[in-house]
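Two proteins, back to back. First:
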Amino acid sequence: VSPSIIEKKEVFESRDRSTRTGTSNNRRSCLENVPRNNPRRHTRTAMDRLTQAIDISIQGSDYASLNTIFGSSMSHSYGDERSWQSLGQGEQRTLASYFIKSAVSNASFLQSAFNSPLAMQVMDVTLRHLPTTGVDNAADNKLRQMIFEFKVEQGDYVGAAVCLDGLRMTDDEGSPYYMTSAEKCDVYVKIAECYLEEGETVKADGAVTKAGQVVESISDPEQHMALILRYKSTYAQVLDSNRKFLQAASRYHDLSQANTEMIDADDLLRMLGRAATCAILAPSGPQRQRILGMVFKDERLSQLDAIPKFETHSAVLTKMYMNQVLRKDDELRKFEESLEPHQNIVKGDGLTIVERAVIEHNMVAVSQLYTSIYFSELGQLLGVAADRAEKVAAKMIMDGSLSGSIDQVDGTLNFEGNESALLGWDEAITSFCVQLSRVTDAVRSE
């Protein structure tokens, strides 16, 4: 074998050994770096770093750093170790829980944080990214209560209601989120009251409905009478705002008769005034006549004249209950001016609520005086065009609130049941007199 060939072979073997040694060294260095590149260790390190940053930020009221940690802006890349975007969803929820606990336990931080838009944004984000199991000692509920009170003071009623609506409530007495029926009812009533302040009647209706589901299960109602009265008042206002005037009138009247020192006599009188308002605006029919009678027979009705907002209510309601025709005079004008915006809207037929209520009432009043009437004359009595009077009469006949028939050929409205109604009244008086006479005779015979 040629010496040159042997030398080349030794060179190749030496080069091969050096390659294997280098590869082995590279593998050894990678193994040494495995723990550093381990995802679990990386997450744990990131969590520790972020929790430490949260502690420092809370102690120093550094809202900008907190916003950097919990910000969802696209400027925070998912690889940015200063942001929780570098963590998984589970770790993000854990970090949010840690922030809530730390913030609630630091009273000085919260006192100033509520006035910072950045801090409020951070609290809003973290409250929406909590673990499903909740936070230790129900710290998130405590924070929501404090934010609710702050927003109410600032006049942000919708924001306050939304925040309070996120409270966790459970029937498990062993849970930190346990709430009694009274506490749940209080939460729902507060939410409804806030929505009513902003005219959000649909959302207020949903909240007060939830309150109604738990108010009956309140133990010791006498102890929670103030809460129950708040619920009844809120429910009546929701019915009123949703233009369910018949039910609202009944609720207001019940409240006006509350025999408790928790409500001032002036407030009870205002409740009676609201009951009168809703009774006048309610659709014509036997149920409205019953509500009108309840309010009319209330001894305090005349006292409404001393309250500017209700100074003509007793006069208008009395005419309605006595089936007298209402004219467009100062009394009716002042009544219309006292109405809330939702009580004076224009309906699809072009009439306001009070205009329709007055027309329907006058239609019934006319039916007590006539057996038939031309629509041209009826329109003059009602203060509307003949064709509109015919449409209102047709609707009332279909609803059952007016007994009669329409003759379109002659253009007349024929009322039914007037004679029988008068005869029924006479028969009732006669029957009462007969029974009274019998009782008198029985007493004398003894």
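And the second protein:
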Amino acid sequence: FVDRAIWGCVLNDQEIRRKLNFSKRFVHNALSQPRIAKNTMQTHPAFVTACGTHAATASSHRLFSCSHTKLPTRAAKSHKSRAPAIQMTQSASLDERDREITVDGAKIVYDYFQGDRTHPVVVYLPGFFYARSRLAKINALQMFCKRKRQGLLTLDYFGTGRSEGDFNTGTVSRWLTDTLAALDKELKGRKVVLVGSGIGGWIMLHVAMRRPEMVVGLVGLSADPDFTEELLVPVLTEEMKQTLEMEGVVQLKWGFRKYPISKALIDDGKKMRVLTGGKDSLSILCPVRLIQGMNDEEIPKEYALRLVECIRSEDVIVTFVKYGDHTLETDEDFVRMWEAVSEVSDKYFEFDLTSPSSG
């Protein structure tokens, strides 16, 4: 294990060599304590810094993936969104947690780590009903981004986590407005790679169409656009529909969890659908990577292929994880996520044509 995980890495400079020597001693000590060895080695910053995405685990062979590459092309369309009422709160430093912005009267909280300007900023959009601080994905992204000195922004939608608002009145439109407000405040003039999980993958598509000059790549994790109309409405019983009309919200067991589904969410979902236009109907031209578990308990695995057909970009690849569920939160899933982020980030190049040496 030590030979494969440590000495299988490529040494790029003296700093990596120094960390590699430290990591070798660290792995030796960790292996002498079996109860903590696995968890400690997989999360220790020195181990991950030295080995990068080559840090292997004993279960790495459980994954199976295949790629589906998209071909055709056409011209893009423009999309407009209403301007929200925004009030900004001055931040104390360039890299800071719990920044605030007021959108339509509600305080929205987000984290922004600036990073350097040589890479696009990674923007993580959480799944349905989850605060950013409760997610293993954002913790993994933060570790990877800091190692690469790549910027990272993630937020709590209206009604979730530390943001204000009643979740039962939250909608895709409202959460899209929150996201655009944070991006427009912090990232004017920057390029971004959007990483959307679950409903974050739905919001991600709308952001890409509304800020095409800003978005240079998309990574979808179990992305479920249109899920309210396509998946939830067909399974609602008459009793549930009556409860929605009278009380405005119903508790619905979906997959392994129970979610509060509101009438506002379903009504808004009809207006925000993106899969109804057919082939090449979404004016998204940047590279797109979709990762989908074949054991997803909330959305059918074929859902990703429908999205591939709708996106106009020629550079669209979907990867299936054989035993992956909806959360995609194993160590191997985190590596896949970061490899996809790195790939679309590295595809972006910005040339300074004002420089005499630019050619």
